[in-house]
Amino acid sequence: MEPSFSPEGTLERVAIDGQRIAGQHELLTHALSRHIERIGRTHSARARQWFQSAEIALLHFREQASEGSGIELVSAYAKDALQRMVLTLDTLRERGDIDLAHEAAGTPPVLIYDYEIMVEGATMKRPVNYMLLRIVPPAGVTVNEESRPFIVIDPRAGHGAGIGGFKEDSQVGVALRAGHPVYMFAFHAHPQVRQTLADVTWAEAEFVREVARRHPKAPKPIVVGNCQGGWATLLLAATNPDITGPLVINGAPLAYWSGPLGSDPMRYNGGLLGGLMPALLLSDLGHGEFDGAHLVMNFEMLNPSRNVWGKYFDLYADPEAGRERFLEFERWWGGFHFLNEGEIRWIVEQLFVGNRLARGEARLEHGRHVDLKSIRSPIIVFASFGDNITPPQQALNWIPDTYADENEIKIRGQRIVYMVHDKVGHLGIFVSSSVARKEHAEMTSTLETIEALAPGLYEMRIDQAEGEGVDTRFLVSFHERALQDIIAIDDGHRREEEAFAAVDRMSQLGAEVYDLAWRPLVQSMVSSQTAAALRAVHPLRVQRASLSDRNPFMAQIATLARKVSADRTSVAPNHPLKQMERLWSDAIEQSLDMMRDLRDAWYETAFLGLYLSPYSAYVGRFHNFERTRKDPNELRFLPDVQAHLLNIDRGGYAEATIRMLIVLAEARGSVRRDRLERSWRMLTHDEPFASMGAEKRAALIHEQTVIVEFERQRAIEALPRLIPDAGDRRRCVAVVEHIAGPLEEMEPHTIQAIQSFRRVFDLPAIEAVLVAPISGKDKPGRNEFDGSSGDVDAKRAGAA
Predict the structure, then answer these.
(1) Which candidate, 382, 185, 351, 195, places its Cα nearest to that of 267?
(2) What is the pTM of this model?
(3) Span 562-591, average pLDDT
(4) Which position among 300, 402, 447, 682 has the lowest Cβ density within 10 Å, counted as fewest Cβ atoms?
(5) 83-140 pLDDT tens trace
(6) pLDDT reported for residue 212
(7) Alpha-carbon Rg of the chain, whole angstroms?
(8) Where does residue 502 fall: left (phi above 0), alpha (psi -120 to 50 degrees), or beta otherwise?
């Protein structure tokens, strides 16, 4: 409610403004102190290391020069340096030629695997520039057509498709080696005329249905979304909750207003660069298409020391070894793609600036509401503290924005698992071999059993490894978490996000002014020819084309490079002048890093100074809203919850078994993958669960989770009414104890829960777990329990 204009109202406004100014000063001081501390700590340490290395290199040079070899040292280094320069220029020439040929071919996916186009989006009822690819398994790899298919959705954020499968150790490679059929949603460079993101989401849903039709005996497909493909995956699942299996969201920004104070300033671009208006202007200059090269340049400027200097120097330092790796990555990095004006407008309005998807306010086609609560598939979110494009806060804060608390996740039957890597960078999430061999391999293995996990919010941890080489297997565990654990990653507060409400409104006002005052003039001055000319002179394209064979000078470089390769002589890596060369490069990199860090500090202080003021709070007052969320105490009175609680005394063996397993899961607070796998084997191989089907099993787990969540003690006391037969009771308890694992590995609260089951069933107290009473046992041997006698209890029971 707005304060009145009475004297009391004026005093109230003054008090509120004073609080805002004090809060703004606190956040500014906090952010600036973090920048200063980090700049001083990192750059002083780097400078000390540089001077120490320079002293050693200079001493090394003096020692060798004093032995009379100074001229030879300089001569050998000069020849090597010139040869490396020629080879580096030849590699850049080849990059330019590859880019031109790739563009002429329509920028096809950069996959290293052969593929078949199963569905071409341009021929669909709602034409789009997307296509469904099936990855052809390489020689020696066999896939099982009845195994759960994998679908990879690559980011369409300036680059082309294929980042998820342009290495053998990749998401595609991991899934193929595990025997899964693999598909990919790829896309052409230019969108269809009047294509919208609603059309894309509709086409992706049709692609998923086509994959399901091709594998009728397999479970629902797993969908993997990388970066921008992550929020596209959630859009797909939220608008089509019945067609997807588990979702894997890798490095995907979903809560765009979130981020750590003192670093990662990309979220401030909307406020400092004008919001939606620049995207509209660039789309008009592109004759209705937004050039993805602008996005790629933004990514490069986030880390200029690497993208402007470092990667080129690394190539120059060892052009023979680095040539193929450089060209492999640059082929993807330089394949610029386009979006329609309507697509980029939706992305900026709904996501970058408006943050509407996380807040439950996103709309598709004609006001169609998109609510992430509608998703029924399990979700695994992978983020990294080393990701400067999608910091963990942006990857995870949509969860507390969407749900009232972790209990609502359980009540809705949802499973959300997150994992935060310590240091891998944004692209490393998709292309790092070490990540593929570890995190993606374990995720792929876990996804086969995740639907046996009780609903809730979990953190996935990969602990120590077992085995070596290709047989390496990591110990994976799932730890139950609360929403506060996610908020704690974001400094325990999100007060600075209030500033983005003003950005949202100013962005809308700027877009309206441009649309009414300038847009007709700009559009009248642009034709398809002028748009093509503007694209051709984009700095990133000029950089590549100028070093290709289009430049007559570069033809001489190609000839010279062949001669150099035939007469190549290189100096040792410990050559003193080569060490000094590395020091020179390190100095340049640190200078660029210092400029970046100072720029980031200015970005953040300028943004907070502009948009956390009392005036900005007034401007954004109608945009600073949160989705309507029930109080956690009200969740019990939801109609679905009340309906489930009516079934507390109803059911049989299946309901009792699932209920007991959920009680155990709550007692433990964490689940190891071996226990999860035992649960999965029971649910998929043993009756009465195996014949239920995945959807009925999921509904059963959901119902029993709600019952245990709100009436835990009553749920346990009602177990005898679900299983009146003594033999069935013993069989049920034996199954639950086997899944819980060896007695010596149980924690005290787990044993207490099992004892409570035995007590209500009038069974002896537990002493030991000796047999595996379900199929698919962990150890070879026959099933010793036949369900007809009390032998098992005799073996495990002590004194009652």
Answers:
(1) 351
(2) 0.87
(3) 92
(4) 300
(5) 999 999 999 999 999 999 999 998 999 998 999 999 999 999 999 999 999 999 999 8
(6) 96
(7) 30
(8) alpha
Taking the C-alpha atoms of residue 203 and residue 118, their distance in angstroms, rounded to an integer, is 13
CA angle 460, 463, 464 (to 5 degrees): 160
The sheet carrying 379-384 orders its strands as: 115-120, 130-135, 182-187, 150-153, 222-226, 247-250, 379-384, 415-421, 456-466, 473-480, 670-672
Nearest to 764 by CA among 730, 720, 721: 730
Phi-psi region of 296 (alpha: psi -120 to 50; beta: other; left: phi over 0): alpha
Q: Are strands 182-187 and 247-250 parallel, antiparallel or unpaired?
A: unpaired
Q: In this structure, are residues 258 and 267 in contact, taking their beta carbons and an 8 Å threshold?
A: yes
Residue type, 523: Q
Neighbours of 592 (CB within 10 A): 18
* E strands, 63-180, in order: 115-120, 130-135, 150-153
Find the length of the chain: 800
| Amino acid 775: pLDDT | 54
Amino acid at 191: P
Instruction: Pull the structure tokens for residue 585.
Output: 């490069």
Nearest Cα to Cα of residue 659 among 614, 723, 602, 611:
723
Phi/psi for 7 (5° steps) reads -55, -35
Distances (CA, A) of 703 to 494, 706, 708, 716: 34, 5, 9, 15
Of 109, 101, 102, 115, the closest CA to residue 129 belongs to: 109
CATH number at 115-264+341-494 = 3.40.50.1820
Mean pLDDT of 379-388: 90
Report d(CA 417, CA 220) in Å as an integer: 19
Q: What residue spans of 386-427 are helical by DSSP H?
A: 392-396, 398-402, 406-411
**Other Cβ atoms within 10 Å of 21 Cβ, number:** 13
Q: Domain ranges for the chain, please list them.
A: 18-104+545-619, 115-264+341-494, 638-796
End-to-end CA distance of the chain: give it in Å, rounded. Answer: 65
Q: Report pLDDT for 6.
A: 59
* Burial of 713: CB neighbours in 10 Å, binned 0-12, 13-18, 19+: exposed
**Rounded distance, CA 369 to CA 361, Å?**
7
Name the token pair of 534.
């503007």
**Which amino acid, residue 326?**
F
Beta-strand relationship, 473-480 and 670-672: antiparallel
The DSSP-derived string for 632-661 is GGGGGGSHHHHHHHTTTT---HHHHHHHHH
Structure token pair of residue 462: 């990969």
Sign of the alpha-carbon dihedral angle for 538, 540, 541, 544:
positive
Q: Which residues pair with 672 in a beta bridge?
A: 477
